[in-house]
Amino acid sequence: MTFLKVDGIHHTYFTKNSATTALSDISLEVEEGEFVSFLGPSGCGKTTLLSIIAGLFKPTEGLITLENKTINRKQNKIGYMLQQDYLFPWKTIEENILLGLKLMDKLDSSKKQNALELLDEMGLKGFESQYPNQLSGGMRQRVALVRTLATEPKLLMLDEPFSALDYQTKLRLEDLVSTTLKQFGKTAILVTHDIGEAIAMSDRIFLFSARPGQLHRTFIVPEELKKLPPFKARNHSSFTKIFESIWKELESLESENEH
């Protein structure tokens, strides 16, 4: 059974004076436990598609199903990790990580214990009573990940979650997020502009063309890279080969876009 199915998605934004087609005839499938990336030039509708998959709004045409059921916002099966961590500055780290569970009315002692254990696994034991402004950007993103995982989502949406971080922190977090998601068998979709990040973290990469966004090509990450944590994958000989191949495709898409 396909875990996530995106079938014939077409989306047009209407204003009083114009109509802009953001996505045209997108169909793809994601298996349970798979990590996939959406990559493409600016304006290819990656974030629009992510929002439709999350059930934030309905597409003009087409259907999204998760475990054979039509997606809706009330399911609480989808977790988000965004570029900004959106931690509440007036709440402690412990209060922040339990917030999702509280809002879903699912907070009990075992779920709280689970969230605190996750915090420990992320190397943040002892920070429970501190506030977000006392933490570095990378630490805050780890707190945001704990808050997301604590609600036990079926599907994780990662919308450029590392792009605001310095390069060293970004590489460390890629490793941490990748191994954590594999450990929990989570299904994830990453939206990124970074080819290297997409290759290092994913099982498959969906490359989109722009205006309107269409699925241009699917790249399967070589098995030897999938087995490695992202940092090691970046240093493997197969990495350069697939990087160059995606780079060339992206270059041709971007030059088409300019004409």
TrEMBL record:
It comes from the Bacteria. This is ABC transporter ATP-binding protein. PANTHER family: ABC TRANSPORTER ATP-BINDING PROTEIN, TAURINE IMPORT ATP-BINDING PROTEIN-RELATED. GO terms for molecular function: ATP binding. Transmembrane segments: none annotated. Residues 4-235 form the ABC transporter domain. Pfam families: ABC_tran (PF00005). The lineage of its organism: Bacteria, Bacillati, Bacillota, Bacilli, Bacillales. Keywords: ATP-binding, Nucleotide-binding, Transport.
